[in-house]
Amino acid sequence: MNAAEQALSIEYASKIAATVGAFKGQLPDLRSDLKPWANDPDTRELIDPDSIDIGFHFPGFSYSFNCRSLLVQIRLHTMASEHDNTNIVKLIGIEVVGFNHLGEQWHLSTINNWQFEGVAPPKDNAGEKIKLCCRQIFKVFNPDLDA
User: Does 146 map to a domain?
Assistant: First the structure.
């Protein structure tokens, strides 16, 4: 779901801002997009309500990252608290996908093995920057866990 639609509380807004900050800290030229999904019925059917989705765009094609844009999907899981009637939301994984004018070039899933897959993965140094951003996001959403 678009990050702009998920920023309904101070807590979520600050976590979304920290996510943007993590990527811009590593890649200052990126432009963030808190509404990467179109608001049409066909697209709305595909949107995961338990995710926070943020788009990032390079000023042009990035040869290090082998893409023009990134889609970051933060996958969440809600569970009931054992102590009271509140819900606890935990980050269960992050999906990062690199796109250019031909479509998806690569993807990274922290749910699986943290390996880049696709026709044109990023260069090693660029890939490590993305993984570092993912580790930072885990710390923001799950401060009690080590990523």
Answer: no
Show the tokens assigned to 32. Answer: 């963030």
Distance in angstroms (rounded) separating the CA atoms of residues 96 and 118: 12
Evaluate whether 2 touches 48 at the Cβ level (below 8 Å). Answer: no
The model's pTM is 0.84
Does residue 107 form part of some domain?
yes
Determine the 3-state secondary structure of 90 from DSSP.
strand
Range of the domain at 88: 3-141
CB 62 within 8 A of CB 29: no
Per-residue pLDDT reduced to its tens digit, 83-120: 777 767 788 999 999 999 999 999 999 988 899 999 99
Which of 136, 59, 45 has the alpha carbon at shortest distance from 96? 136
In sequence order, what are the beta bridge partners of 70? Answer: 56, 98
